[in-house]
Amino acid sequence: MSSSSTGATAVHSDRVRRLIYQASYTGMKETDLLLGHFARLHLPGLSDADLTDFENLLAAGDPSIYAWVMGNAPLPAAYDTPVFKLIKEFKNNK
Fold this sequence. Notes:
DNA polymerase, domain 1
């Protein structure tokens, strides 16, 4: 493995760790539990583009995320990503 790919792997790992932490402490217990558990299981295997989609989703805020995941509010097109679909599937299979 080249040093540049090792560096990229380290950056990816750091990003995943940061996102797992953020997902686990969003501020709303329901989303903390759902997103934190999802993040620990799925984020390490996601691409950088998928991690960006997850980051963007976190930035939307807990009340919105919770409403979208539970189906209580329509999901805006900007958040209708493969990552969101994975979260919904994860929630439905829990």
